[in-house]
């Protein structure tokens, strides 16, 4: 994302030069046009994003008690949050989710994108569309669907195990439910990530491959040394989106809870915890704190990933 | 877009006769496959099967009655009961399912059209104009992409609640109008798709800035707009958290919230609620069809729209 901002910023002076305003009134007219064009977006941006964000930050600095009403408590809620075992274990669970599910999903998406782009598999256009379809399936439906498939009542997985005379695993048990969730999320989003990577692959100039082929490079070598570095920004984009998505997990665990109430607690993910605090416990101040703290964690991890990526890119360039 | 054309040419490109013919064909269709690899084909289709099997299960199960759901194998048909399932889906709770479907369509189309328009106008302005504060504003949009939207849902609920907006369609539509990623995608897209010299020519012809935007730029931005529109459509269509907290009245629910309530009722059992399983399954199938069709139908547009965002992202 930062790279694009840089390209945009560097593209701008050139455009301005070409467009060199004849008079200052022309320039003013263009400024006004630009402001009018961005105004609708920034109105809703302010009202629906900036204001709630600040309001949430404001709420998180107060505490409401039955006796004594609402009082300013500074960062006490944050201290509570970062020592709250329910919040921390939710974060830890998402951390585990992040280090297992995100690499699996991104690598699978990258493999599929490269396989289809290589043009060496038959009917790959059909496969590409099939793999993408789950993205258009609502998370709610995806979770219900997999919930039934995992289920012991009439789930086909259990049916197959029983038909083979084997003991079926309970995929919704305490021990297995996190893996089952990872599978649902992977199923939902591989296609989306694959399409982003595939689109990026399609815009690499072909002559690069021809040159590499003349030099005797095989398909794997071309994929590893040309294609993957060329679509690095797209891969980074999918990783960042996946990190944000992971920590925001709500739909899937919330819905699985009704199928497997013993395996998923009301603080299973930080978001589910914030929801419970706000709408079951009616503690909006602490709920806002959890939401805000979660936002901090996501921003920090996203920045760390971006900086790490930039550093490795720079090293790659100098090497 | 080269992606589409090259594949269309790619299909009959197998079994070349002469060496020269092969060489020229390969050059003309770019990289779309010279030799096919059976191993890669098998791997790719095994992966595709993983994505397809749950949906096949959904289609098969939607044709069964409740008894067959429990007693027959998930990947084989029982009595064909699809029509009866759709009938009971349509009559349960006075046909509320179709209410939910209409609500979903209204919420998501309204949100997507407006969100896409706002994102297009803003993205175009960022790409094509230099104005005081543009950099800071653009970075604030980029930063906002990273803000978890669900973290905003609770304060938004509280604000809407004090404004008396909860439990109205506005509560679902208004927060869905903001698409920072859409602005980012459109600015990247517009930077390439709209030629600055074309704008300059229009200015010399005496066209005003808005006329340039509406009559020249919008046409060039087509694939980008379709992409942002579709992804905004999916975001609202599939939204669950926001309507769940904002809405209380059943007749205002979108499909996601309605179906999940039915599912919870059928899982908790009791009172013959198990009969709901087939309704949830058939309803799920119906709820995914419109988006799947929209994506397949418009794939040429949104894929080329994503290409620019993906590369420069």
Q: What would you note in describing this structure?
A:
The complex is a heterodimer of chains A (319) and B (313). Chain A has 319 residues and is mainly alpha-helical. Chain A folds into two domains: 58 residues; 239 residues, MetI-like (MetI-like fold). Chain A is 75% helix and 3% strand. The two termini of chain A are 24 Å apart. The N terminus of chain A is likely disordered. Chain B folds into two domains: 42 residues, no CATH class; 221 residues, MetI-like fold, CATH 1.10.3720.10. In chain B, helix 6 packs antiparallel against helix 13 and helix 13 crosses helix 17. The two termini of chain B are 19 Å apart. At the A-B interface, helix 1, helix 2, helix 4, helix 5 and helix 6 of A face helix 1, helix 3, helix 6, helix 7 and helix 8 of B.
How is this fold's topology laid out?
The complex is a heterodimer of chains A (319) and B (313).
Chain A lengths: L1 H17 L5 H36 L2 E4 L3 E4 L3 H6 L3 H34 L5 H9 L6 H12 L5 H8 L13 H26 L4 H8 L4 H12 L1 H16 L3 H9 L10 H10 L4 H35 L1
Antiparallel strand pairs in A: 1-2
Chain B lengths: L1 H9 L8 H10 L9 H24 L4 H6 L10 H10 L4 H33 L5 H12 L3 H14 L6 H5 L6 H14 L2 H9 L4 H12 L1 H16 L3 H6 L8 H14 L7 H22 L1 H14 L1
Helix pairs in contact in B: 5-16, 6-10, 6-13, 7-10, 10-13, 10-17, 11-12, 13-17, 15-16
Subcellular location (chain B): Cell membrane
GO biological process, one term (chain B): transmembrane transport
Keywords (chain B): Cell membrane, Membrane, Sugar transport, Transmembrane, Transmembrane helix, Transport
